[in-house]
Structure of Class I SAM-dependent methyltransferase:
Amino acid sequence: MTSRELTGLLSLDDSVPGRPLGQQASDFAWRMAFGAIGWPWLLRSLWGGRKADKRALMDRLGLAHDALPHLGSWKADTGFLRHIVTQIERLRPRIVVELGAGASTLVTAKALSLNGGGRLLSFDQHEGFVDATRHWLAENGLTVDIRHAPLEAEVEGWPGRWYDIDALPDQIDMIIIDGPPWSVHPLVRGAADSLFSRLAPGGVILLDDAARPGERLVARRWRKQWTDIDFALETDGTKGTLVGRRNINGLVPLAANDNGRTWRHAARAAGIAALIATGWIARGAMGEFPAAAQANSFVDEAAASHRNGLLRQAMRSQVESPKLDRAEIARSTGIQLPVMPSGWAVRDVQLYPTSDGPAVAVSLTAPGGEPVSLFAGKAETPAEAKPLLATRSGESIAYWEVGDVAFAVTGAVAPARALELAAQIAS
């Protein structure tokens, strides 16, 4: 939980009367061990981010600059709050469940009101704080279903005590995890996966304090146990945010399981060779070999547009449009497509609707005869022009960005070949 007021160095008392002494001793030992290891991250948690970033966030939401008078001292930082707003703007969720109320509750509720409504269910273990937060939201013209949920439950496979949560909707579009505090147990937030079976396809999970050692162990277990959810650690805030997204088509992302780890090792050498051969490293766009793409919805849309393009080409009744007018596309959509390299053939050009506005899908035949697609649209997350890899339905997808436009080359080719073809277009 987090407050709009200044908070002390120590968290509020979360002890439960009658808890067995053995469990109390075990929890204390874990806290001492992780406190000794993780004190740099805990100290960093006391800073809430730059005041300029907080003002920019308030302007984005149309809130007064003093709507969040104090951040830091265990509160959600501006980086985590910004992730909440960005995901709500992209996803427009109908049902959001929040674990640990406070600053994130205000930001989430306001973002929902600006993006199609949506219902927020928020839970916190301190009854007095629940009442205070409810009044705080009302002062800002917001109404939220915020409930008292004492730490009296246990979740099999996870230590510590968990929220005693009452009835939840069968399907949740977004889960925000900002509690319980680490002082209950360093791994206590792992029990949030008791809600993951309710996460809708394409739904999002946001875990605060994800750079801490305890949360890193939690994320590692989640990746193994929930192979249909793609998790990525974002480090743009002071404490790190773990972003998880359930695969839309139910397929297991290649980078999210043990097979994906094997694939990454096998692809590393071939991929780096392809990048060197095509000049991507030489042009300064590449640091180390990329992991799976983090722009999940864009990658899913790129894969879907590729399959739709192949389907159109197989149907006699569908008229293809092989004329690629880059100037007209730029004027109409704001998307500046690259010039197609010599030896590439354009088969079809179509506008493709997305949640972030129109995108352009170009069906191509590569010089080697491979049918591939170039998909271009609004960038979802900054990738600094670095090529990233993903797979969908056995197809390789090479993703990169130029300014505020994202690009993806998709085809039934080897990962190294996808990078090579993407590099040809990007250059």
